[in-house]
Amino acid sequence: MRVQCSQCGTRFNLDERLITRDVVKVRCSRCHHVFEVMRPQGTPGLLEDDQALVSPAPEGGEDTATSGLAATPPEGPPEPEPIPLPARSAASNKERARRVALLATVAGCLLGLLVGTLTLWYFGEKASLSSSPAPKERPEESQRPPLPAAGPEELKNLEIELRDARYRGLVHPKGGQLLVIEGAVKNLTGEPRGPILLKATLMDPMNQPIQELLFYSGTSLSDEELRQTDPEKIKRWLNTPGGRQGVKMIKPNQSQVFTGVFFGVPDNLAEARHGFHIVVLKAPRLPVD
């Protein structure tokens, strides 16, 4: 019988008796395409291993058999003969599915075993931690526990009385142009507070901070002292709780003066319209005797 490759169109002569199954697969020797060939009805097979050897048919004339198997082209070297590929049987597909199912089952068992082991370890550690005795607390060294620091709401009762800021004519030989913020903080909380820590922030025209100053209340300075006192000494007063006066406690309804000093501010501070704001940062409670 004559068969033709469905990919490249090459024709082959194939002995019908070599087809031992209803459908066999053959591979084209030219383009290597694999296609199926059906056995004609009523044709007996000769081979038991389902392999058929075919070769391309001559381009012209009638097909002639060679050694009773196939025809070869009259010109040129013979083409490699395609070998039909046996179709995969249903039994092999079932075997493959059975192996895949077995591997999936084994993998599931191993995963379940791992999860179970981790779960037992987790609950065992948790039980051991809960059953262990709690550490003993160290006894307080002081008979009186420390008072909590004042929160933001309580700081609102510390009123700031601000005076006009001064900077014109206040130039220090070492510290440059000075900006001095003066005022007083009044305790309206109804309980002793102190020492009072303040924060002043110098702002630019876009209301962005350009310099911050943290200092304690309790310091007052004259213009002459601002011009002649060493800047490091002034900074030590401002960084000392209670300030230059050394008074750390402000009783209810009492006030304490403060002075904040910025060193090296721009010469055209007023023309540049720089501003500042000041807030109470800390005001710890003090025990009542």
Describe this structure in words.
With 289 residues, the chain is α+β, with helices and mostly antiparallel strands. It has 2 domains: 1-88, no CATH class; 152-282, Immunoglobulin-like, CATH 2.60.40. Helix content is 21%, strand content 24%. The protein has helices spanning 90-131, 152-155, 223-228, 231-238; strands spanning 2-4, 11-13, 23-27, 34-38, 55-56, 158-162, 171-172, 176-187, 197-203, 209-216, 255-263, 275-282. Strands 6, 7, 8 and 11 form a 4-stranded antiparallel sheet that branches. A 3-stranded antiparallel sheet has the order 1-2-5, with no helix packed on it. A hairpin with a 3-residue loop joins strand 7 (171-172) and strand 8 (176-187). The chain is elongated. Residues 45-91, 129-154 are annotated as: Disordered. Residues 74-85 have a biased composition (Pro residues). The chain crosses the membrane at residues 100-123. Residues 1-35 form the Zinc finger/thioredoxin putative domain.
List the helices and strands and how they pair.
Blueprint: E1 2-4, E2 11-13, E3 23-27, E4 34-38, E5 55-56, H1 90-131, H2 152-155, E6 158-162, E7 171-172, E8 176-187, E9 197-203, E10 209-216, H3 223-228, H4 231-238, E11 255-263, E12 275-282
Antiparallel strand pairs: 1-2, 2-5, 3-4, 6-8, 7-8, 8-11, 9-10, 9-12
